[in-house]
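Quick illustration, no need to memorize.
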Amino acid sequence: MTKIPNIKIVFEDQNLIVIDKPAGLVVHPGAGEHGETLVDWFLEKYPDLKKLEWPDISRAGIVHRLDKETSGLMVLAKNPQTLQRLQALFQSHKSHKSYLALVFGQFNKKTGEIKSFIGRDPNARRQQVSRSIFFDFEPGPKGAPFGGKKREAKTDYKVLKEYHYHGQILSLIEATLETGRTHQIRVQFKSIGHPVIGDQMYNIKHSRNISKELGISRQFLHAYKLEFDKNKFESKLPPELGKILQKIS
């Protein structure tokens, strides 16, 4: 039996389920990640799915992913045919994913977009780097060239509310993904000087200090809206994030 706490199922039919993933849970096995995963929970809950011919049993049902410390809505496919269909739907941008994030700083405009190319940082294998332009053999921070694929990424955002906290301004934003790159929201907002509060990987001195003062142990990033196949789902902020907003109000 897995040691994963009970996961809330938001919707379920014979082909898929929509769940509300808690922070701290890895979606599937990967580099540097060990322990129980969402896939373990999925195959334990639906043991007959182990008999199906998944492209990769270690990622059975995974249409899209959330970072370990990001909470919120995900859809999982109950069979390979639905998996293929939903993956194609997401890749063709016929689905919509929106997040709530508390980020450092004040924005000049209440709405906007971030367009960049995201590639792996050669000096920190588990991190990504955002650039407006990537040149071939562009040197990294320590002189090494950026490696791997550089994928275009676009995020639309809207400032929902501003908070004044210990002489700094924090902004609660809604971020809607037009693409789904690894660490997209976290790396893009850090690249424009607005790192996500609580983020242990993509941060600056001011955001680290505020995160420490607030006692937040995870990034303030929650996938709160998910739309596909004319279905619309919404998830409330987890209690630990709601308490952070109360603390800075």
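Strands lie at 8-12, 16-21, 71-77, 96-104, 111-120, 128-131, 147-165, 168-177, 221-228, 231-234.
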